[in-house]
Please model this.
Amino acid sequence: MGIMRIGRVSLRVMDMAAAVKHYEKVLGLKKTMEDKQGNVYLKCWDEWDKYSLILTPSDQAGMNHIAYKVENDADLDALQKRIEAYGIKTQVLPEGTLPSTGRMLQFHLPSGHDMRLYAMKEYVGTEVGTVNPDPWPDNITGAGVHWLDHALLMCELNPEAGVNKVAETTKFATECLDFKLVEQIMVGPDNSIQAATWLSRSNTPHDIAFVGGPRMGLHHIAFYLEDWADVLKAADVMAKNKVKVDLPPTRHGVTRGTTIYFFDPSGNRNETFSGLGYLSQPDRPVTTWTGDEMWRGIIYHTGEPYEAFTDVYT
Model:
C-alpha cells in the first residue's frame, strides 16, 4: 500500500527546441506526445508508463512539480486523510488534468515543493517488451538512460533563524508518507543539525533527497544507468554535444553511486546515476555523515569542497 516509486517530474524550460534536443539526443529519452499548450512529454526506454518527464515552456528554469505513483487508487484517499490530519492542505485533481493520467492528490511539502500522488497512467510498455525481451533496444540514442531515478530538492536551512525545512520535510515524509530515512548529513555543534537526507520507498538508496540551502528549489533530477562504463559513455556523449558539465564522472560516498552532474540548456541540473550501492532493506540502519566528512560523502574521491555544487540550483 502507498507510494511505490517516483513517477514523473515537470520542469520549466526556456527554449523548448533546445530542451527536447538535449533530453532526446544526450540522455536518450523519447518524445511521446505534445499538448495544445506546448508541453512536451517524454519517457525513457526502460519505462512502461507513457511519460516520466514533462517540459513546460517558461521564461525561468525550475521545477513545477514532482509526482510519485501509489499502488492503488484507494491509497489516494487514505493518504489524503493522513496528510490532512498532519496539518497540510490537499486538493484532488480530476482524471484528465494531465494527459493519460488518473486523478491526482496534490499538496505542498513543508519545504514548499508541489508534490502529487497518482495511481493510474497509461501503460505503453518498454522498448524491449515483456516477452523474451532483449537486454536493450536497437534504437538507443545518447547515454540511453533506463529510467527517471530520483530527485534532490533544496530546502531552506537557516539555523540562526531557527529554520530547518530539511528536518521538517524529512519528518513529514517519514511519518506521513512512509519513506525510510536511509542516509543523512549532520552538521553544526555536536553534529546536531540535519542538513541533508536521502529517503527511499523501494529498495534503492534513495527515491527522493532533501538538502539545505538559502532558498527552496530544485538541485537535480537523476536518470539511471546500469554501470560505471555507461557513466563514462554518458560523459563522452556530453562532450560530443558540448553539454555544460558540473561535476565530471566520480563516486558519491552517500549511496555509493557513480555519477555525472550536468545542466540542460535552461540550467536545470541533471544527473546520470549508476549502481544500487546497497539495498535499502527495512531494517537497514541509517548511515550518517558528519560535517567534517560531508564533502567526502558528496565527492568521495577527493573530499574537496565544491561550493557551486550546493549554491547553484534552479
In short: The two ends are 33 Å apart (CA to CA).
